[in-house]
Amino acid sequence: SVNITLSSGKTRKCKGKGGNTINGLHFCAIHMKMKLKTNYIIHKVNTDGECLFNAIAFGILLNTKKQKPSYKEYKTLAKELRKIATDVLMEKIETNDVMFTSAMAAEYRNSTTKSDKDKAMSYVRKMRRACQWGGQIELIALSDEIHQRNFKGVQVVNSNMKNVAQMATNINSSKKGKLLKIRLKNIRNGGSHFDYVSKKKS
User: Fold this and answer.
1) Distance (Å, whole) CA 89 – CA 95
2) Whole-prediction pTM value?
3) What angle separates helix 98-107 from helix 116-127, to the nearest 10 degrees?
4) pLDDT for 97-140, tens place per residue?
5) What is d(CA 8, CA 126) in angstroms, rounded to the nearest whole number?
6) What is the pLDDT along the chain (202 residues), one digit of tens a residue?
7) If DSSP states are collapsed to H, E and C, what string results for the chain?
8) Which own/partner contact pairs does 92-96 have at CB distance under 8 Å and 24+ positions apart?
């Protein structure tokens, strides 16, 4: 094992197998992974079943105010974003948008309801609850709101900061603001929590 220095200044033993020493620095799989992660800041938000909206709200406020938002600030915006998303989804049902209605019906697994429209309505009622997890359907529903705030969109990334395919709002590259990135933990098992991610300034 080899001692390596963390960004905190502390040292720890690197127990990765193999690796190379270059100019006195040891590189192994663990070391390289840590180096990758130190290029980003993970801004942790509350784990209350509303983490998708919490993470997006945190990112919006951080980039708008140029300072870290308080819990109260990002929670207030998170609840607003949830309402906006569910209002959009309800409008899609009422205007007979087949794509959205079918997607919501597929997510709402309740065999006692009959039509796709009934299932979609049940899905929205469930999604209005503060503790209900949001996902890809809600991301798409928030696209216009994110663009109106002058951001390019929201992209979900994995723990290695790689984009997760088909997990994003619609992207509008003409907007001057950033593409907000939120990290989803434990993707292989369906995901467990979203946090906002920003790149460290060089």
Assistant:
1) 10
2) 0.80
3) 70
4) 999 999 999 887 666 667 899 999 999 999 999 889 999 999 99
5) 43
6) 434 333 344 444 444 444 444 344 434 444 434 444 568 899 999 999 999 999 999 999 999 998 999 999 999 999 999 999 999 999 999 999 999 999 999 887 666 667 899 999 999 999 999 889 999 999 999 999 999 999 999 999 998 899 999 899 999 999 999 999 999 998 887 788 999 999 887 6
7) CEEEECCCCCEEEECCCCCEEECCEEECHHHHHHHHHCCEEEECCCCCCCHHHHHHHHHHHHHHHCCCCCHHHHHHHHHHHHHHHHHHHHHHHHCCCHHHHHHHHHHCCCCCCCCHHHHHHHHHHHHCCCCCCCCHHHHHHCHHHHHHCCCCEEEEECCCCCEEEEEECCCCCCCCCCEEEEEEECHHHCCCEEEEEEECCC
8) 92/141, 93/117, 93/120, 93/121, 93/124
Q: Which amino acid is at 172?
A: N
